[in-house]
Amino acid sequence: MRQLANTMDLGAAFDASPNAYVLLNTDLVIAGANTAYLELVNAKREQIIGRPMFEAFDSGPSDEAPENVRQVRDSILHAIKTGQRDHLAIVRFSIPFEDPTGAVIYEDRFWSATHTPIRDETGKVALVLQHTTDITEIESLRHQVGAVTGETSTALDAALGGGVLARAQQVQQSNRKLEIERRKLNDLFMQAPGFVAVLGGPDHVFELANSAYGQLIGHREVLGKSVREAMPEVVDQGFIDLLDHVYATGETYEGRESLLQLQRRKGGDLEDVYLNFIYQPIRGEEGRIVGVFVQGYEVTETVKADQRQRLMIDELNHRVKNTLATVQSIAMQTARTHEDPASFAETFQSRLMALSHTHNLLTRSHWEGADLRDVLQHETLAHGVHRVILNGPAVALSPAMAVSLGMIFHELATNAAKYGALSTGDGRVFVDWSVQDLTDRKLVIFWREQGGPAVSEPSRRGFGSRLIERNVRHDLAGEAKLVYASDGFNAEISLPLDRGDGHE
Question: Using an 8 Å Cβ cutoff, are 282 and 291 in contact?
Answer without folding.
Answer: yes
